[in-house]
Amino acid sequence: MTIRPASDRSLHVVFGDRIGAESYAAVVRLTHGLAGARGVLNLHPAYASVLIDFDPRRYTHRQIEALVRECFESSNPPEPQPRQVEIAVEFGGESGPDLEDVARHTGLAPERVVEQFTGAVYEVYFVGFATCFPYLGGLPAELATPRLSAPRKHVLEGSVAIGGGQAGVYPLASPGGWRLIGRTRLRLFDPQAVPPPLLRMGDRVRFVAEARR
Amino acid sequence: MSGIRVVSAGMLTTVQDLGRFGWAHFGISASGAADPFALRAGNLLVGNAENAAALEMTLLGGAFEFEADTVVALTGSDFGADLPLWSPVEVKAGQTVRCGPSQSGARCYLCVRGGIGVPKVMGSASTHVITGVGGRPLRKGDVLPIGSEAVRKPRGAARDVPPLGDGALRVTGGPQADSFADELYRGVYTVSEESDRMGLRLRGPAVPSAAGHMLTEGVPLGAVQVPPDGQPIILFVEHQTTGGYPKPANVISADFRRLGQLRPRGQVSFERVTIEQALRLLQRQERWLYGL
Question: DSSP per residue over B196-219, as a string?
Answer without folding.
Answer: -SSEEEEESS-------S---EE-
